[in-house]
Amino acid sequence: MKLLLLSCLLLLSLSCNSANQVGNLNKLIKSQRYQRPIQSHESHNGLDQVRDNTYSPVYVESQDGSKKADKIDALPGQPTEGVDFNQYAGYVKVDATAGRALFYYFVESPQSPSTKPLVLWLNGGPGCSSLGYGAMEELGPFRVNSDENSLYKNDYAWNNEANVLFLESPAGVGFSYSNTTSDYQNVGDNKTASDSYKFLINWLEKFPEYKTRDFYITGESYAGHYVPQLAYTIVSENKITNQTKINLKGIAIGNAWIDASTGAQGGYDYLWTHALNSDETSAGINKYCDFVTFNISTTCAKYLGQSDDEVGEIDAYNIYAPLCNTESKPAASTGSVYEFDPCSDNYVNTYLNLPEVQAALHAKPTRWSACGDVGWTDSPITVLPIIQELIASGIRLWIYSGDVDSVVAVTTTRYAINTLNLKTETPFRPWYSSPGEVGGYVISYEGLVFATVRGAGHEVPSYQPERALTLFTSFIQGAPLPSS
Ligand SMILES: *[C@@H]1O[C@H](CO)[C@@H](O)[C@H](O)[C@H]1NC(C)=O
Ligand SMILES: *[C@@H]1O[C@H](CO)[C@@H](O)[C@H](O)[C@H]1NC(C)=O
Ligand SMILES: *[C@@H]1O[C@H](CO)[C@@H](O)[C@H](O)[C@H]1NC(C)=O
Ligand SMILES: *[C@@H]1O[C@H](CO)[C@@H](O)[C@H](O)[C@H]1NC(C)=O
């Protein structure tokens, strides 16, 4: 798995196209931005994505009896003890004419699920699976052992604190599909937000007890687009709908791609400040590259290529993590949530393709892959205007960042937030997870909390599960992060 930074986009190297969350993100940016300067009509801010005041019903079909049918008896290879919560999986139809359905996996909380909030988790890409990454490698209740057919428990799973819903979206990702194949080539941010909204309204018909429940949306990476866009769709639709009003309370996004200009600049600054690029390369990029218009000169391109070469073969998701070495794979042993196995993608891929696993999940027999090959048609350069609208709407808004990710690096997030010029409410300070250990740093602005997670890569809960759960708990409780 070779991951390169933004500069690989220019070189059109095949290695940039590895199907993973970041590979897909890079591919998108390349196709839309880097090949040519930004045209003025492309700079729409995404705020037009919701139709003007014309409500059209999104209820697709009766869900009677489907909750029961979606209940999972047990996942193959799950631990024999300690699985004391309900699991569900299946499809929700979002377009009856096209035959389009989205797949979900839902885990309730072991303790008092009826009093805990409902939380949606979305991975990015675009086009990557929240089941494969979020549920099976990050915050879900289980992770896959290196034997690739059994599971172990994640003691820091987020369903300790909430009922967590993982959605594979849009159609073409994971088990989500459409009977109209052109649907796979005509997707983008707009369609993803509107289909996810239709999914939620219809899912709530399946699980009506959650209709009025406090609801939060969380996600990472390119979900820095999906989450604010879906939240904005909900806020807008809630004003005009005569169907379910979703009780949206807040959103949290991690290592989130929210603004392309600061994203590129912050990424290269991160490489230099973390001793991965030379002074000369950094100076050349700063002098010759224009990340505001993305009019990339050949001199700039030369320095971007040099930047990649200097970084070498490291895991860009976590610059200090080991690479997956399949030769020295550990003998099938029980994994540990304390030490993230860099070969986890392989284990998950095998596991989710086992016919008995697909049957247990009520999935259509599918050649499952972590990231779908979906053609992306629209993606605004920035979602900061949407984020400003959400701040104005009064919902809770947290942005967090694992600080050893070089792809959507903490610098990019800080630069993006700084452009909003928000007033500081509580100054920058350390927060604590294990007693005595700094979990990261936090600053509260008016309407927005920004927190780092120390020692976490791009997938924060994979690398720092305890710190991630501390952060998540504070977020849904609306409480300050622990100060000791
Ligand atoms: C997204 O949808 C809105 C409203 O339907 C439309 O005006 C806009 O052009 C769409 N954006 C793209 C890039 O398709
Ligand atoms: C897709 O087509 C199959 C075969 O006709 C049908 O069984 C299935 O329900 C369709 N899916 C959707 C989401 O309509
Ligand atoms: C909701 O609005 C739709 C479209 O305007 C209409 O067909 C439907 O009857 C309305 N439902 C209720 C319960 O008012
Ligand atoms: C891009 O930059 C080149 C030179 O660096 C310049 O000649 C060209 O006009 C620029 N294009 C745009 C669209 O700004």
TrEMBL record:
<dbReference type="GO" id="GO:0006508">
    <property type="term" value="P:proteolysis"/>
</dbReference>
<dbReference type="GO" id="GO:0005576">
    <property type="term" value="C:extracellular region"/>
</dbReference>
<dbReference type="Pfam" id="PF00450">
    <property type="entry name" value="Peptidase_S10"/>
</dbReference>
<dbReference type="InterPro" id="IPR033124">
    <property type="entry name" value="Ser_caboxypep_his_AS"/>
</dbReference>
<keyword id="KW-0121">Carboxypeptidase</keyword>
<dbReference type="GO" id="GO:0005773">
    <property type="term" value="C:vacuole"/>
</dbReference>
<keyword id="KW-0732">Signal</keyword>
<feature type="signal peptide">
    <location>
        <begin position="1"/>
        <end position="19"/>
    </location>
</feature>
<dbReference type="InterPro" id="IPR018202">
    <property type="entry name" value="Ser_caboxypep_ser_AS"/>
</dbReference>
<keyword id="KW-0645">Protease</keyword>
<keyword id="KW-0378">Hydrolase</keyword>
<keyword id="KW-0325">Glycoprotein</keyword>
<comment type="similarity">
    <text>Belongs to the peptidase S10 family.</text>
</comment>
<dbReference type="InterPro" id="IPR029058">
    <property type="entry name" value="AB_hydrolase_fold"/>
</dbReference>
<dbReference type="GO" id="GO:0004185">
    <property type="term" value="F:serine-type carboxypeptidase activity"/>
</dbReference>
<dbReference type="InterPro" id="IPR001563">
    <property type="entry name" value="Peptidase_S10"/>
</dbReference>
<protein>
    <recommendedName>
        <fullName>Carboxypeptidase</fullName>
        <ecNumber>3.4.16.-</ecNumber>
    </recommendedName>
</protein>
<keyword id="KW-1015">Disulfide bond</keyword>
<keyword id="KW-0964">Secreted</keyword>
